[in-house]
Amino acid sequence: MSGPESSNGGASFPKPFYRWRPHPWHGLEPGKNPPVQLQAYIEITPFDSVKYEISKTTGYLRVDRPQRSSSVPPALYGFVPKTYCGPRVTALSPKAVVGDGDPLDVCVISERPINRSDILVHTRVIGGLQCVDGNEADDKIIAVLENDDMHGEIDELSDLPEVLIDRLRHYFSTYKMVPGEESQMSVEMTYGLEHAKKVIQASLEDYEEAFG
Predict the structure, then answer these.
(1) Which domains does the chain have, with CATH numbers?
(2) What DSSP element (H or E) covers 107?
(3) Does residue 89 contact residue 35 with C-beta atoms inside 8 Å?
(4) Which one-letter DSSP state was computed for residue 33?
(5) What is the pLDDT of residue 163?
(6) Burial grade of 177 (CB within 10 A; 0-12, 13-18, 19 or more)
(7) What's the pTM?
(8) DSSP secondary-structure letter at 157?
(9) CA-to-CA distance for 158 and 8, rounded, in angstroms?
(10) Residue 163 gets which letter from DSSP?
């Protein structure tokens, strides 16, 4: 019999091994080298006209709402495990009063189309969008897929094509709009790597304080 064996003569589990599926927010790590190299859990792809969101109770994806407009996200969209938008993230967003109480959102740029969600991707951070939802800090970190053939060498948000940044700004400015009502979501500014690192570090510290 080949392969690793346990002390009782049976096959052993590889390490690390999860006997049960870990919660994507609380049971996975934020990445190989935060705040620059992050792991992202993907909830929505550029092919989705329905907004999916992680269930904070079960860790499974659930339908949040069908999008009311024809807009679809221009990049993979999800969050960074073991992050939290609390007081430290709020302090970096002048027009926000509180954090949104969710994990830190991340958009991942990939040359090749990826049409599956509920996946993990390794990324490298290049910047972000300072978004405010009502009075809540709701930053969107922007990263590139690690080893991406087209975007993998980009270091700063300003190195992305301007049209792609415009699409990201437009999507997050409009994706919560309800016809006949004023949008509560605003994109206050775009920022580069250095500020993104501060936001990510703040979210890691907010998580530690909130959940220990």
Answers:
(1) 37-211 (3.90.80.10)
(2) strand 105-109
(3) no
(4) B
(5) 95
(6) middle
(7) 0.91
(8) G
(9) 57
(10) H
Quote the pLDDT of residue 13.
78
Name the residue type at position 40.
A
The identity of residue 94, as a single letter, is P
What integer pLDDT is reported at residue 9 of this predicted model?
A: 55
Q: What is the pLDDT of residue 71?
A: 79
Residue showing tokens 């907010």: 206
Which residues, at least 6 apart from 125, have a Cβ–Cβ distance to it below 8 Å?
35, 36, 37, 38, 141, 142, 143, 193, 196, 197, 200
Element (DSSP H or E) covering residue 91: helix 87-91
Tokens at residue 181, please? 């009502």
Give the model's pLDDT for residue 37. 98
Residue 178 has a pLDDT of 75
Cβ–Cβ < 8 Å for 49, 65: no
The ranges of the chain with pLDDT < 70 are 1-10
